[in-house]
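If your schedule permits, I should be very grateful for your opinion on a structural question. I have a record of one protein: its chain in single-letter code and its fold written as discrete structure tokens. Would you kindly read the sequence against the tokens and tell me how you understand this chain to fold? Thank you for your consideration; the sequence and its tokens are set out here.


***
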Amino acid sequence: MTHGTDTLSRPPVRLRALVAAGLLAAVPATPAPALASALTTEERAKRGGEVIRSLNNGQTQPNLERMREEFPFLAEATEAYALGDVWARPGLDARTRQLAAVAAFAAIGETAFMKVHAGYALNAGVSEDELKEIIYMVTVPAGFPRAITAARTLSELFAERRPSAEGGTP
């Protein structure tokens, strides 16, 4: 019995929908007054830029900036909606949001996004051990192949962020 999976490495569609629904259920349904829909796209994008800098130690996000060059609409939509509307919502602190993002991206096999958000999680005070626990948890809903791939990606991130043998930083 396959339980709706199309491959061994891809969780069933129903499971992916349940994970997404669980993540959405954690976010309050009513927007806060500060996040009212009366804001312009420019204001929302500005707020999104502030969110990214708060997550990324005051820096812009290189992937977003590269996307802005060739796909300006997609970059603006990401900055205004994903960052300015969703990530700026009240109700969850930065640690919790990043742990949820790491788990979700690991579970769906999006390790590039998982790596970015794991870096933000470390910036927000999440420990390497806590991130490892998230990957262990991924084995239950998404399976060992996804968790193993996520573990390799997380190991790369840890190695990149550790000081080099010469005493400097990477």
Q: What stands out?
A: Residues 72 and 142 are 33 Å apart (CA to CA). Residues 40-90 form one domain. The helical segments are 13-25, 41-55, 62-70, 72-87, 94-107, 111-123, 128-142, 144-161.
